[in-house]
Amino acid sequence: MKFTKTVLVTVALSLSTGLASAGAHEEMTIVSWGGAYSKSQLKAYHEPYTAMTGVTIINDESAGTAVAKLRAMKEAGNLTWDVVDVEAGPAMQLCDEGLAMEIDHDTMLAAAPDGTPASEDFGSFIVSPCFIPQIVYSYTVGYRNDMVGSTPPTSICAIFDTETYPGKRSLKKGALSNMEWALLCDGVAKADIYPMLETAEGQDQALAKLDTIKDDVIWWSAGADTPQLLADGEVVMGSTFNGRLFALIEEQKQPVSMLWDGQIYDLDGWIIPTGLSPERQARALDYVKFATDTQRLADQSKWISYGPTRASSAPLVDKHAELGIAMAPHMPTDPANSNNTFLMNYAFWADYKDDVESKFQAWLAK
What we know:
By secondary structure, this protein is α/β, with parallel strands linked by helices. It has 13 helices and 11 strands. The protein is 36% helix and 18% strand.
């Protein structure tokens, strides 16, 4: 799935939140990523919100280019987006640039059912005053069971082991995740990875490690690419988001397994762009208050294997809405899956993403 398809969701029912009359045919554009992730939002958030308010939601799958597009919209003075789903690092970047609205989490978002303020319920996942946390996911690796021989990989560094696991790999066409794994598999301790990536020497070391497999890599730009490559048998292993692999393994029943080792936790959540009219801003705030309450975040886990960011939501994680299987064991944060993980350094990527990404793309073009 490329980030081009636009899905229109509308259920014309009476307005119940007091924003406006359903007869006004209000609509809002919500930006996300597509695929299984957008489906989980559609089922858990968009459809219930539309049913409750009558607001039409246009789901734009352009989240992968959100920073650049919001900059361009500001320059052009033409803001067409109302709510944007972004990773934590880009959210911090947008906040620093004044492109995302600062949020008072305790007054603008719902408290937990027991009255715990939102700021306490989300805890450390509020990494920016502009960021409204939604899910915990991870960059991880899937591999073809029938292409790895009698010794399936147990280490993330199998990506670089082309002797034991010959064949093509698929990796994200970007610096994030690849630079961390390269240093990790070049012997750098996890605690030292981000300090090293702040230096030219550390960046060069990561790229030198990636050089060793460059000819064996198919570079992906959409989260659905690796699952498709794995399903077609075009790669022996590949990185993507854990939710994409869950869909491939559990829903499509492909001969693929998940490699949880070395998974990189990241957060995804909402930002509201600055510059909206008062009416659009009020509608956007109403939506995110609804979409990030305790029950709604738990509901999303019925459709995708991403962990809810509210502590109060975790006990409500239940079975998959269609498959009927328990979802807790498929979460990246499940103890059985989290023996060797590390959390994305959001401050690093907010400060260094442009420079490191530019260097990575220059290397890729050689």
